[in-house]
Design a protein that fits this description.
The protein has one domain. The chain has 3 helices and 3 strands, in the order H-H-E-E-E-H. It has helices spanning 2-73, 81-96, 143-148, and strands spanning 101-111, 114-123, 127-135. Pfam families: DUF7261.
Length: 149
Amino acid sequence: MIGHESTRDEATRHDRGQLVLIAAVTIAFILLGVVVVFNGVLYTQTLSSSASGQAISDADRSALEIEDGVCALAHNGSVSEDDLTALEEQYPHSKSGSTASVVSFGDVTTDNNVTTVEVRYVSSDLEFERVVEVDLEECPDHVEEEEEG
């Protein structure tokens, strides 16, 4: 009978060992699941907050590009209506492939060497209108003019 009791103790210990192993694997999977969910939440928050920052930078870049475009068209402190019309037609087409936004022009006026362009910027998470004023006298000289002079 003594041999029978020791076999039972070994079987009980063996069962307990399996139970501890199953509990450890279950806890490991639960922790792994919590880590994956928590990481996904943090990544989503980071992605959503950085998207609006990127949209603002795209809008600022668009305003600078429009200002540079008007300056590039300026000859002797003035811009012709045909040049402004061409810029107004071509600029939105040049932006359509590089960003997920739409840039359109409103009124474009020139008065006393200051060209005013109303710009409407629309992206998936940002929409606003901005007035870009370009003082044609403050535009940098063209490289060709510097080489000639």
